[in-house]
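Annotated sample (chain length 501).
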Amino acid sequence: MTPTLRALLCLGLSVGLRTPVEAGPLPKPTLWAEPGPMIPRRSPVTIWCEGTPGAEEYRLDKEGSPAPWKIQKPQETGDKVNFSITHMTEYNAGRHRCYYRSPAGWSERSDPLELVVTGFYRKPSLSALPSPVVTSGGNVTLQCGSGHGFHRFILTKEGDHRLSWTQDSQRQPSGQYQALFPVGPVTPSHRWTFRCYGCSRYSPQVWSHPSDPLELLVPGAADTTSPSQNNSDPKSGDSGKPSLLSQQGPIVAAGQSLTLQCRSDVGYDRFALHKEGGRDLPQSLVLQPQAGLSQAHFPLGTVSSSHGGRYRCYGGYNLSAEWSAPSDPLDILVAGQLPDTPSLSVQPGPSVASGENVTLRCQSQSPWDTFLLAKEGAAGPPLRLRSEHRAQQYQAEFSMSPVTSTQGGTYRCYSSNSTSPFLLSHPSEPLELLVSGAADTTSPSQNNSDPKSEFPAAQPQDYTVENSIRMGVAGLVLVALGVLLYEARSSQKQTQDAART
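Output written by the structure step:
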Protein backbone atom coordinates (compact mmCIF):
# COMPACT_ATOMS: atom_id res chain seq x y z
CA MET A 1 0.00 0.00 0.00
CA THR A 2 1.38 3.32 -1.08
CA PRO A 3 1.91 6.08 1.46
CA THR A 4 -0.66 8.26 -0.33
CA LEU A 5 -3.34 5.58 -0.23
CA ARG A 6 -2.58 4.84 3.43
CA ALA A 7 -3.00 8.55 4.30
CA LEU A 8 -6.31 8.81 2.42
CA LEU A 9 -7.60 5.68 4.14
CA CYS A 10 -6.71 6.99 7.60
CA LEU A 11 -8.32 10.33 6.80
CA GLY A 12 -11.53 8.58 5.68
CA LEU A 13 -11.66 6.46 8.84
CA SER A 14 -11.04 9.52 10.99
CA VAL A 15 -13.83 11.46 9.31
CA GLY A 16 -16.15 8.50 9.65
CA LEU A 17 -15.53 8.23 13.39
CA ARG A 18 -16.12 11.92 14.00
CA THR A 19 -19.19 12.29 11.87
CA PRO A 20 -21.83 11.22 14.53
CA VAL A 21 -20.40 13.65 17.08
CA GLU A 22 -20.21 16.51 14.67
CA ALA A 23 -23.90 16.01 13.85
CA GLY A 24 -24.68 18.03 17.01
CA PRO A 25 -23.87 17.86 20.76
CA LEU A 26 -26.22 15.89 23.00
CA PRO A 27 -28.21 18.02 25.47
CA LYS A 28 -26.65 18.35 28.88
CA PRO A 29 -28.42 16.49 31.72
CA THR A 30 -30.04 17.98 34.82
CA LEU A 31 -28.47 17.36 38.22
CA TRP A 32 -30.14 17.81 41.64
CA ALA A 33 -30.06 16.43 45.18
CA GLU A 34 -32.81 15.16 47.48
CA PRO A 35 -33.72 16.28 50.11
CA GLY A 36 -31.49 19.23 49.18
CA PRO A 37 -27.93 20.41 48.66
CA MET A 38 -27.30 21.11 52.38
CA ILE A 39 -27.07 17.80 54.23
CA PRO A 40 -26.44 17.30 57.96
CA ARG A 41 -23.42 15.19 58.79
CA ARG A 42 -24.02 11.39 58.57
CA SER A 43 -27.45 11.89 56.95
CA PRO A 44 -28.41 10.23 53.63
CA VAL A 45 -28.71 12.09 50.33
CA THR A 46 -29.66 11.01 46.81
CA ILE A 47 -28.15 12.68 43.73
CA TRP A 48 -30.26 12.48 40.58
CA CYS A 49 -28.98 12.88 37.00
CA GLU A 50 -31.60 13.08 34.23
CA GLY A 51 -30.63 12.87 30.57
CA THR A 52 -32.51 11.65 27.49
CA PRO A 53 -34.14 8.31 26.63
CA GLY A 54 -31.67 5.86 25.17
CA ALA A 55 -28.76 6.84 27.40
CA GLU A 56 -26.64 3.79 28.14
CA GLU A 57 -24.48 5.04 31.01
CA TYR A 58 -24.33 7.97 33.43
CA ARG A 59 -21.24 9.27 35.16
CA LEU A 60 -20.84 11.60 38.13
CA ASP A 61 -17.67 13.61 38.64
CA LYS A 62 -16.59 15.41 41.80
CA GLU A 63 -14.26 18.37 41.50
CA GLY A 64 -10.81 17.45 42.81
CA SER A 65 -11.41 13.67 42.63
CA PRO A 66 -10.33 11.24 39.90
CA ALA A 67 -12.93 10.97 37.14
CA PRO A 68 -15.31 9.32 36.96
CA TRP A 69 -16.32 9.57 40.62
CA LYS A 70 -19.38 7.30 40.24
CA ILE A 71 -20.87 5.32 37.32
CA GLN A 72 -24.48 4.15 37.02
CA LYS A 73 -26.51 2.45 34.30
CA PRO A 74 -30.19 3.40 33.87
CA GLN A 75 -33.19 1.09 33.84
CA GLU A 76 -34.23 -0.17 30.42
CA THR A 77 -36.89 2.48 29.88
CA GLY A 78 -35.57 5.17 32.20
CA ASP A 79 -33.93 8.43 31.30
CA LYS A 80 -32.38 9.15 34.71
CA VAL A 81 -30.34 7.50 37.45
CA ASN A 82 -29.60 8.18 41.09
CA PHE A 83 -26.34 8.06 42.99
CA SER A 84 -27.05 7.24 46.65
CA ILE A 85 -24.93 8.44 49.58
CA THR A 86 -26.03 6.72 52.81
CA HIS A 87 -23.86 8.76 55.21
CA MET A 88 -22.88 12.27 54.19
CA THR A 89 -19.30 13.18 55.14
CA GLU A 90 -16.87 15.93 54.32
CA TYR A 91 -15.42 13.67 51.58
CA ASN A 92 -18.74 13.71 49.70
CA ALA A 93 -19.06 17.49 49.89
CA GLY A 94 -17.97 19.55 46.93
CA ARG A 95 -18.91 20.53 43.38
CA HIS A 96 -20.41 17.78 41.20
CA ARG A 97 -21.34 17.42 37.51
CA CYS A 98 -22.88 14.53 35.58
CA TYR A 99 -23.00 13.45 31.93
CA TYR A 100 -24.20 10.43 29.96
CA ARG A 101 -23.29 8.25 26.98
CA SER A 102 -25.68 7.27 24.21
CA PRO A 103 -25.13 5.57 20.84
CA ALA A 104 -24.54 9.07 19.45
CA GLY A 105 -21.69 9.73 21.85
CA TRP A 106 -21.14 11.62 25.11
CA SER A 107 -23.33 14.49 26.29
CA GLU A 108 -22.27 17.83 27.62
CA ARG A 109 -21.67 18.06 31.34
CA SER A 110 -24.50 19.29 33.57
CA ASP A 111 -24.51 22.56 35.46
CA PRO A 112 -22.57 22.18 38.73
CA LEU A 113 -24.28 20.98 41.91
CA GLU A 114 -22.57 22.05 45.11
CA LEU A 115 -23.17 19.66 48.00
CA VAL A 116 -22.59 21.06 51.49
CA VAL A 117 -22.29 19.06 54.69
CA THR A 118 -23.31 20.81 57.92
CA GLY A 119 -22.70 20.08 61.59
CA PHE A 120 -18.90 20.07 61.78
CA TYR A 121 -18.45 23.08 64.13
CA ARG A 122 -20.35 24.82 66.91
CA LYS A 123 -23.28 26.90 65.74
CA PRO A 124 -22.80 30.67 65.38
CA SER A 125 -25.26 33.27 66.67
CA LEU A 126 -27.62 35.29 64.48
CA SER A 127 -29.17 38.60 65.50
CA ALA A 128 -30.85 41.60 63.90
CA LEU A 129 -29.57 45.19 64.09
CA PRO A 130 -31.06 47.32 65.45
CA SER A 131 -34.07 45.02 66.01
CA PRO A 132 -35.90 42.07 64.42
CA VAL A 133 -39.06 44.20 64.41
CA VAL A 134 -39.05 45.95 61.03
CA THR A 135 -41.61 48.29 59.54
CA SER A 136 -43.05 47.26 56.16
CA GLY A 137 -40.65 48.34 53.43
CA GLY A 138 -37.80 48.86 55.88
CA ASN A 139 -34.27 47.46 55.94
CA VAL A 140 -32.38 45.56 58.61
CA THR A 141 -28.86 44.22 59.11
CA LEU A 142 -28.35 40.61 60.21
CA GLN A 143 -25.23 39.88 62.22
CA CYS A 144 -23.71 36.40 62.25
CA GLY A 145 -20.98 35.87 64.83
CA SER A 146 -18.93 33.25 66.62
CA GLY A 147 -15.92 32.84 68.87
CA HIS A 148 -14.66 30.17 66.47
CA GLY A 149 -12.23 31.52 63.89
CA PHE A 150 -14.44 31.11 60.82
CA HIS A 151 -13.13 32.73 57.64
CA ARG A 152 -16.61 33.06 56.16
CA PHE A 153 -20.24 33.20 57.18
CA ILE A 154 -23.18 32.07 55.04
CA LEU A 155 -26.72 33.38 55.47
CA THR A 156 -29.63 31.23 54.26
CA LYS A 157 -33.33 32.05 54.01
CA GLU A 158 -35.95 29.45 54.85
CA GLY A 159 -37.37 27.91 51.70
CA ASP A 160 -34.55 29.31 49.57
CA HIS A 161 -31.62 26.95 48.83
CA ARG A 162 -29.51 29.38 46.85
CA LEU A 163 -25.99 29.16 48.22
CA SER A 164 -25.47 32.91 48.19
CA TRP A 165 -25.16 35.68 50.77
CA THR A 166 -21.63 34.73 51.72
CA GLN A 167 -19.47 37.24 53.57
CA ASP A 168 -15.89 37.13 54.77
CA SER A 169 -15.69 37.39 58.54
CA GLN A 170 -14.14 40.28 60.44
CA ARG A 171 -12.32 39.81 63.74
CA GLN A 172 -13.56 42.18 66.46
CA PRO A 173 -11.50 43.64 69.35
CA SER A 174 -13.44 41.33 71.68
CA GLY A 175 -12.03 38.31 69.82
CA GLN A 176 -15.35 37.50 68.16
CA TYR A 177 -15.62 36.88 64.41
CA GLN A 178 -18.64 38.32 62.64
CA ALA A 179 -20.17 39.30 59.31
CA LEU A 180 -22.98 41.76 58.52
CA PHE A 181 -25.70 41.01 55.94
CA PRO A 182 -27.98 43.86 54.79
CA VAL A 183 -31.56 42.63 54.19
CA GLY A 184 -34.49 44.52 52.71
CA PRO A 185 -36.81 45.97 51.83
CA VAL A 186 -38.85 43.74 54.16
CA THR A 187 -42.55 43.24 53.37
CA PRO A 188 -45.23 41.06 55.02
CA SER A 189 -45.93 39.19 51.78
CA HIS A 190 -43.93 36.17 52.96
CA ARG A 191 -42.02 34.96 56.00
CA TRP A 192 -38.49 36.19 56.60
CA THR A 193 -36.79 33.39 58.52
CA PHE A 194 -32.99 33.07 58.41
CA ARG A 195 -30.15 30.88 59.67
CA CYS A 196 -26.42 31.34 59.35
CA TYR A 197 -23.40 29.02 59.17
CA GLY A 198 -19.64 29.37 59.47
CA CYS A 199 -16.90 27.71 57.43
CA SER A 200 -13.19 27.76 56.64
CA ARG A 201 -11.84 29.07 53.35
CA TYR A 202 -9.90 25.81 53.00
CA SER A 203 -13.09 23.67 53.15
CA PRO A 204 -15.84 25.94 51.82
CA GLN A 205 -18.39 23.09 51.58
CA VAL A 206 -17.92 21.95 55.20
CA TRP A 207 -20.15 24.11 57.41
CA SER A 208 -20.95 24.48 61.07
CA HIS A 209 -24.22 23.59 62.75
CA PRO A 210 -26.93 26.12 61.80
CA SER A 211 -27.62 29.05 64.08
CA ASP A 212 -30.95 29.25 65.84
CA PRO A 213 -33.59 30.53 63.40
CA LEU A 214 -34.30 34.25 63.35
CA GLU A 215 -37.62 35.50 62.00
CA LEU A 216 -38.10 39.14 61.16
CA LEU A 217 -41.39 40.60 62.29
CA VAL A 218 -43.45 43.13 60.33
CA PRO A 219 -46.07 44.41 62.80
CA GLY A 220 -49.48 45.91 62.32
CA ALA A 221 -50.68 43.98 59.28
CA ALA A 222 -52.28 40.81 60.69
CA ASP A 223 -56.01 40.35 60.14
CA THR A 224 -57.83 40.14 63.47
CA THR A 225 -59.83 37.15 62.28
CA SER A 226 -58.36 33.68 62.22
CA PRO A 227 -58.06 32.21 58.69
CA SER A 228 -60.59 29.56 59.74
CA GLN A 229 -63.06 32.17 61.07
CA ASN A 230 -65.79 33.81 59.05
CA ASN A 231 -64.59 37.14 57.71
CA SER A 232 -68.03 38.59 58.39
CA ASP A 233 -67.46 38.21 62.12
CA PRO A 234 -64.33 40.27 62.84
CA LYS A 235 -62.82 40.49 66.27
CA SER A 236 -62.52 43.91 67.81
CA GLY A 237 -59.80 45.34 69.99
CA ASP A 238 -57.39 47.99 68.70
CA SER A 239 -56.12 46.21 65.56
CA GLY A 240 -56.15 42.91 67.43
CA LYS A 241 -53.15 43.81 69.56
CA PRO A 242 -52.61 41.35 72.43
CA SER A 243 -51.94 42.15 76.07
CA LEU A 244 -48.74 41.34 77.97
CA LEU A 245 -48.38 40.80 81.70
CA SER A 246 -46.00 39.33 84.22
CA GLN A 247 -47.19 36.57 86.53
CA GLN A 248 -44.83 37.89 89.20
CA GLY A 249 -45.79 41.56 88.77
CA PRO A 250 -43.72 44.35 87.21
CA ILE A 251 -41.12 44.39 90.04
CA VAL A 252 -39.08 41.21 90.45
CA ALA A 253 -36.06 40.29 92.53
CA ALA A 254 -32.88 38.59 91.38
CA GLY A 255 -33.16 34.83 91.79
CA GLN A 256 -36.90 34.70 91.12
CA SER A 257 -38.32 32.74 88.21
CA LEU A 258 -39.84 35.09 85.62
CA THR A 259 -42.60 34.18 83.15
CA LEU A 260 -44.37 36.61 80.83
CA GLN A 261 -47.80 35.88 79.40
CA CYS A 262 -49.13 37.18 76.07
CA ARG A 263 -52.85 36.75 75.40
CA SER A 264 -55.64 37.94 73.14
CA ASP A 265 -59.31 37.32 72.39
CA VAL A 266 -58.27 36.93 68.73
CA GLY A 267 -57.54 33.31 67.79
CA TYR A 268 -53.83 33.67 67.04
CA ASP A 269 -51.73 30.56 66.44
CA ARG A 270 -48.48 31.99 67.76
CA PHE A 271 -47.06 34.87 69.73
CA ALA A 272 -43.69 36.60 69.58
CA LEU A 273 -42.00 38.43 72.46
CA HIS A 274 -39.61 41.30 71.91
CA LYS A 275 -37.47 43.21 74.37
CA GLU A 276 -36.61 46.79 73.47
CA GLY A 277 -32.98 46.85 72.36
CA GLY A 278 -32.96 43.06 72.00
CA ARG A 279 -31.62 41.42 68.86
CA ASP A 280 -33.57 38.18 68.99
CA LEU A 281 -37.28 37.40 68.98
CA PRO A 282 -38.39 34.36 71.00
CA GLN A 283 -41.63 32.85 69.76
CA SER A 284 -44.16 30.50 71.31
CA LEU A 285 -46.99 28.52 69.77
CA VAL A 286 -50.51 28.53 71.22
CA LEU A 287 -51.22 24.90 72.01
CA GLN A 288 -54.96 25.05 72.68
CA PRO A 289 -57.02 28.26 72.94
CA GLN A 290 -59.55 28.12 75.77
CA ALA A 291 -62.80 30.05 76.29
CA GLY A 292 -62.10 32.20 73.25
CA LEU A 293 -58.76 33.31 74.69
CA SER A 294 -55.46 32.50 72.96
CA GLN A 295 -52.35 32.83 75.08
CA ALA A 296 -48.73 31.77 75.32
CA HIS A 297 -46.22 31.74 78.15
CA PHE A 298 -42.63 32.87 77.82
CA PRO A 299 -40.49 31.46 80.66
CA LEU A 300 -37.44 33.73 80.89
CA GLY A 301 -35.61 31.74 83.58
CA THR A 302 -33.99 33.00 86.75
CA VAL A 303 -34.06 36.78 87.08
CA SER A 304 -30.82 38.73 86.74
CA SER A 305 -30.09 42.35 85.94
CA SER A 306 -30.21 41.55 82.21
CA HIS A 307 -33.94 40.81 82.48
CA GLY A 308 -34.77 44.44 83.24
CA GLY A 309 -36.26 46.25 80.28
CA ARG A 310 -39.32 47.08 78.21
CA TYR A 311 -41.18 44.21 76.53
CA ARG A 312 -43.92 43.94 73.89
CA CYS A 313 -45.62 40.96 72.28
CA TYR A 314 -47.27 40.29 68.93
CA GLY A 315 -49.83 37.80 67.63
CA GLY A 316 -49.69 35.93 64.33
CA TYR A 317 -50.83 32.90 62.35
CA ASN A 318 -48.86 29.84 61.29
CA LEU A 319 -49.84 30.17 57.63
CA SER A 320 -49.18 33.89 57.37
CA ALA A 321 -46.19 36.20 57.60
CA GLU A 322 -48.31 39.02 58.99
CA TRP A 323 -48.27 40.03 62.65
CA SER A 324 -50.56 42.10 64.84
CA ALA A 325 -49.91 45.53 66.23
CA PRO A 326 -47.69 45.41 69.36
CA SER A 327 -49.11 45.09 72.85
CA ASP A 328 -48.83 47.97 75.26
CA PRO A 329 -45.30 48.02 76.72
CA LEU A 330 -44.54 46.11 79.91
CA ASP A 331 -41.60 47.35 82.01
CA ILE A 332 -39.84 44.66 84.05
CA LEU A 333 -37.96 46.22 86.98
CA VAL A 334 -35.32 44.22 88.86
CA ALA A 335 -35.04 45.11 92.56
CA GLY A 336 -31.98 44.70 94.75
CA GLN A 337 -29.48 45.86 92.12
CA LEU A 338 -28.45 49.10 93.91
CA PRO A 339 -26.73 49.18 97.34
CA ASP A 340 -28.94 51.77 99.03
CA THR A 341 -32.30 51.15 100.73
CA PRO A 342 -34.59 54.22 100.96
CA SER A 343 -37.09 54.98 103.72
CA LEU A 344 -40.80 55.65 103.38
CA SER A 345 -42.98 57.87 105.60
CA VAL A 346 -46.49 59.29 105.41
CA GLN A 347 -48.05 62.62 106.37
CA PRO A 348 -50.21 63.29 108.34
CA GLY A 349 -50.05 59.66 109.49
CA PRO A 350 -50.74 56.06 108.52
CA SER A 351 -54.41 56.27 109.61
CA VAL A 352 -56.43 58.92 107.82
CA ALA A 353 -60.02 59.63 106.85
CA SER A 354 -61.25 59.50 103.28
CA GLY A 355 -60.96 62.93 101.69
CA GLU A 356 -57.85 64.03 103.58
CA ASN A 357 -54.66 65.14 101.86
CA VAL A 358 -52.00 62.43 102.21
CA THR A 359 -48.35 62.52 101.13
CA LEU A 360 -46.02 59.52 100.96
CA ARG A 361 -42.39 60.60 101.18
CA CYS A 362 -39.54 58.41 99.87
CA GLN A 363 -36.05 59.58 100.81
CA SER A 364 -32.41 58.56 100.92
CA GLN A 365 -29.04 60.04 101.74
CA SER A 366 -27.56 58.61 98.53
CA PRO A 367 -27.80 60.73 95.36
CA TRP A 368 -30.40 58.75 93.42
CA ASP A 369 -32.26 60.82 90.83
CA THR A 370 -35.48 58.79 90.76
CA PHE A 371 -37.86 57.25 93.31
CA LEU A 372 -40.60 54.73 92.68
CA LEU A 373 -43.67 53.98 94.80
CA ALA A 374 -45.28 50.55 94.49
CA LYS A 375 -48.49 49.26 96.06
CA GLU A 376 -48.61 45.64 97.14
CA GLY A 377 -50.83 43.55 94.87
CA ALA A 378 -51.14 46.22 92.17
CA ALA A 379 -50.78 44.92 88.63
CA GLY A 380 -50.02 48.31 87.12
CA PRO A 381 -46.63 50.02 86.98
CA PRO A 382 -45.30 51.82 90.06
CA LEU A 383 -45.40 55.59 90.32
CA ARG A 384 -42.13 57.28 89.37
CA LEU A 385 -40.88 60.76 90.40
CA ARG A 386 -37.63 62.68 90.06
CA SER A 387 -35.89 63.24 93.38
CA GLU A 388 -35.22 66.61 95.01
CA HIS A 389 -32.33 67.50 97.29
CA ARG A 390 -33.54 68.98 100.59
CA ALA A 391 -31.85 69.20 103.98
CA GLN A 392 -29.05 66.83 102.99
CA GLN A 393 -31.62 64.29 101.82
CA TYR A 394 -32.74 63.14 98.38
CA GLN A 395 -36.49 62.70 98.39
CA ALA A 396 -39.70 62.56 96.38
CA GLU A 397 -43.23 63.22 97.63
CA PHE A 398 -46.15 61.23 96.22
CA SER A 399 -49.38 63.11 96.80
CA MET A 400 -52.81 61.52 97.23
CA SER A 401 -55.15 64.51 97.45
CA PRO A 402 -57.83 63.75 98.35
CA VAL A 403 -57.20 60.17 99.45
CA THR A 404 -59.88 57.53 98.86
CA SER A 405 -60.57 54.24 100.54
CA THR A 406 -59.37 52.37 97.43
CA GLN A 407 -55.88 53.79 98.00
CA GLY A 408 -55.50 52.04 101.32
CA GLY A 409 -52.95 49.27 101.34
CA THR A 410 -49.29 48.42 101.81
CA TYR A 411 -46.67 50.52 100.04
CA ARG A 412 -42.93 50.28 99.44
CA CYS A 413 -40.57 52.64 97.70
CA TYR A 414 -37.43 52.10 95.64
CA SER A 415 -34.61 54.31 94.38
CA SER A 416 -33.12 54.27 90.89
CA ASN A 417 -31.02 56.20 88.39
CA SER A 418 -32.26 57.43 85.03
CA THR A 419 -29.15 55.93 83.42
CA SER A 420 -30.43 52.43 84.38
CA PRO A 421 -34.17 52.94 84.80
CA PHE A 422 -34.98 49.22 85.02
CA LEU A 423 -32.59 48.48 87.94
CA LEU A 424 -33.87 49.34 91.43
CA SER A 425 -32.59 49.40 94.98
CA HIS A 426 -33.81 47.09 97.72
CA PRO A 427 -37.34 48.04 98.82
CA SER A 428 -38.02 50.22 101.83
CA GLU A 429 -39.75 48.82 104.88
CA PRO A 430 -43.45 48.33 104.13
CA LEU A 431 -45.84 51.11 105.11
CA GLU A 432 -49.53 50.33 105.62
CA LEU A 433 -51.95 53.15 104.86
CA LEU A 434 -55.38 52.89 106.55
CA VAL A 435 -58.13 55.04 105.04
CA SER A 436 -61.38 55.20 107.00
CA GLY A 437 -64.72 56.71 105.99
CA ALA A 438 -67.22 56.23 103.18
CA ALA A 439 -66.14 54.39 100.10
CA ASP A 440 -65.18 56.50 97.11
CA THR A 441 -68.25 57.30 94.99
CA THR A 442 -66.39 58.54 91.92
CA SER A 443 -66.46 56.37 88.82
CA PRO A 444 -63.35 54.51 87.68
CA SER A 445 -62.99 56.92 84.78
CA GLN A 446 -62.91 59.83 87.21
CA ASN A 447 -60.27 58.13 89.29
CA ASN A 448 -58.12 57.53 86.22
CA SER A 449 -58.15 61.22 85.41
CA ASP A 450 -55.97 61.82 88.45
CA PRO A 451 -52.36 61.31 87.26
CA LYS A 452 -51.26 60.74 90.85
CA SER A 453 -53.59 57.75 91.20
CA GLU A 454 -52.22 55.11 88.84
CA PHE A 455 -52.76 52.01 90.96
CA PRO A 456 -55.62 49.64 90.13
CA ALA A 457 -58.52 49.98 92.55
CA ALA A 458 -58.37 47.65 95.52
CA GLN A 459 -61.44 46.08 97.14
CA PRO A 460 -63.19 48.61 99.47
CA GLN A 461 -62.71 47.81 103.15
CA ASP A 462 -65.67 47.26 105.50
CA TYR A 463 -65.55 49.58 108.52
CA THR A 464 -69.04 48.74 109.95
CA VAL A 465 -67.75 46.99 113.08
CA GLU A 466 -65.09 49.63 113.69
CA ASN A 467 -67.64 52.45 113.37
CA SER A 468 -70.08 50.68 115.72
CA ILE A 469 -67.38 50.40 118.36
CA ARG A 470 -66.54 54.06 117.99
CA MET A 471 -70.23 55.06 118.37
CA GLY A 472 -70.57 52.88 121.42
CA VAL A 473 -67.51 54.44 123.05
CA ALA A 474 -68.83 57.91 122.23
CA GLY A 475 -72.19 57.04 123.85
CA LEU A 476 -70.50 55.86 127.02
CA VAL A 477 -68.49 59.06 127.19
CA LEU A 478 -71.66 61.13 126.90
CA VAL A 479 -73.38 59.16 129.67
CA ALA A 480 -70.37 59.60 131.93
CA LEU A 481 -70.30 63.34 131.29
CA GLY A 482 -74.05 63.55 132.08
CA VAL A 483 -73.57 61.73 135.37
CA LEU A 484 -70.68 63.99 136.34
CA LEU A 485 -72.69 67.11 135.45
CA TYR A 486 -75.70 65.90 137.51
CA GLU A 487 -73.51 65.13 140.51
CA ALA A 488 -71.84 68.55 140.22
CA ARG A 489 -75.19 70.33 140.18
CA SER A 490 -76.51 68.30 143.13
CA SER A 491 -73.39 69.09 145.15
CA GLN A 492 -73.71 72.80 144.35
CA LYS A 493 -77.39 72.83 145.45
CA GLN A 494 -76.59 71.07 148.72
CA THR A 495 -73.88 73.67 149.44
CA GLN A 496 -76.31 76.56 148.80
CA ASP A 497 -78.99 75.01 151.05
CA ALA A 498 -76.49 74.57 153.85
CA ALA A 499 -75.40 78.19 153.48
CA ARG A 500 -79.04 79.42 153.82
CA THR A 501 -79.58 77.32 156.92
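Annotation: Residues 7-24, 226-237, 439-467 have pLDDT under 50 and may be disordered.
Annotation: The first strand starts at residue 30 and ends at 34.
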